[in-house]
Design goal:
Layout lengths: L3 E10 L4 E5 L4 E10 L5 E8 L4 E10 L4 E3 L7 E3 L4 E6 L5 E9 L4
Antiparallel strand pairs: 1-9, 2-8, 3-6, 3-7, 3-9, 4-5, 4-8
Length: about 110
């Protein structure tokens, strides 16, 4: 069965949580990169919201100026169900660019 590789992006994320991706079926997240575009260090939070509960993947993680945080590394992956959402926020206005890679429409 063919799989659907997808990417989702957002730029200049600030202090308000921004939804990067909402799953419409089962999906596997294979990468999340959070890049600091500010001139000084910032703290990033990446969460999954499943409709009732917010789960932190990283919480107030430091991202130095000019660098990026790989939320999933070493081949790690996680599965999302329909309606699950990835939300990213910073402690600094307009400071993060985010890239999410996924495999959508996984057979159940």
């Amino acid at each position: 069965m063919a799989q659907n590789f997808r990417r989702y992006t957002a730029s200049s994320i600030g202090t308000t949580g921004t939804t990067i991706y909402t799953s419409s079926s089962y999906a596997t997240i294979i990468g999340i990169s959070v890049a600091n575009i500010a001139t000084s260090g910032v703290n990033a939070t990446v969460q999954i919201y499943n409709g009732t509960t917010t789960i932190n993947l990283v919480y107030v993680a430091p991202v130095p100026a000019g660098s990026a945080l790989q939320v999933l590394d070493g081949g790690a992956k996680f599965v999302m169900s329909s309606g699950d959402a990835i939300i990213v926020k910073s402690d600094t206005t307009s400071s993060l660019d985010v890239w999410v890679s996924s495999v959508d429409s996984i057979s159940t």
